[in-house]
Amino acid sequence: MKTRIAFLGFRHGHVRDAYRRARERPDVEIVACCEEDAGVSAALEREGAVKVTHRDHRKLLETVQCDAVVVGTVFGKRGAIIADSLAAGRHVLADKPACTSLAELDRIEELARTNGRAVGMMLEMRDAGVFIGMRRLVREGAIGEVRTVAFGGQHPLLSATRPAWYHEEGCHGGTINDIAVHGIDLIPWMTGLRLSRVAAAREWQCGVPQGSHFKNAAQLMLVMENEAGVIGDVSYVSPDSHGYSLPLYWRFTLWGSRGVLETSLNAEEIVLFKNGESSGRALPPGPPDPGGYLESFLHEARGERGASADAARLTTAEVFAASRAALRAQEAATLGLRDVEL
Fold this sequence. Notes:
The protein is of the alpha/beta class. It has helices at 14-24, 38-47, 57-63, 75-87, 102-115, 129-139, 175-191, 292-301, 316-335; strands at residues 3-8, 28-34, 68-71, 91-94, 119-121, 146-152, 195-204, 217-224, 229-233, 251-256, 259-264, 270-274, 281-283, 340-341. It has 2 domains: 3-117, NAD(P)-binding Rossmann-like Domain (Rossmann fold, 3-Layer(aba) Sandwich), CATH 3.40.50.720; 126-289 and 321-341, Dihydrodipicolinate Reductase, domain 2. The chain has 9 helices and 14 strands.
């Protein structure tokens, strides 16, 4: 039987990936699409790519028979819509971030637990072959115990095309919560080590229009359960003309007791610098898993068990853990806190 899915919001480009993948799956039926912003709804109609059936998500939840929803509205509105959907008994797949406050996340977790619903997230970097391969190498002990991690997730600002709501008060919710959640999810998944605390975090403005509420630059320091340190930069400062094509885009360097691993999202290989050797080795990536975030979500929502339920799959518990850690790091940046336990 097909899983019936409704889409709630198309305010970020990421949701188009989920829409396309859902349309291509024979085991999924898209039964409704809601967009509450009149301008965006009209644009979708003109494009002809999405047929908007509803302008009120609550009305859709009341009247449309569906098993799950995909939420892709403005960041600051997602928490309430996800809570409404869970309260209505639907499973939820969210673009990241799922919400912009710890109070919203508490409510979402409570509703998911009470109603037995799955909550997935579009953490698609887990699906990239280079990171799947890096995970395997770390787990096999290629660099020994992980001692430090550095990652760069810098993005282009792209002011000419980035949605205007990024600059509006209460809509974005913070660059750490927006971008760093990818690294916060990926590092424990690759290393098997839990993040234990936020040592420090900072967020500021640079290069945004006057009057903007968007703090587009952000850095953070985290500590893992074995006391290994993590340093990350997720600022919107990458040159616009290069788009997302830079070889430095989502670059991860893991330093261990027996060597170093490095790769990036746009790389075609993983480089291993092994202690005892004098030159690096270029290793092939693992097999990519395109759309793995959707497969993981459907697998859990359907309550399936078996061989495909492997440890690499993204679960509701991991979505909540990454979201909570990102929100705590965001709070540390906003309030100037240090050594925040996760």
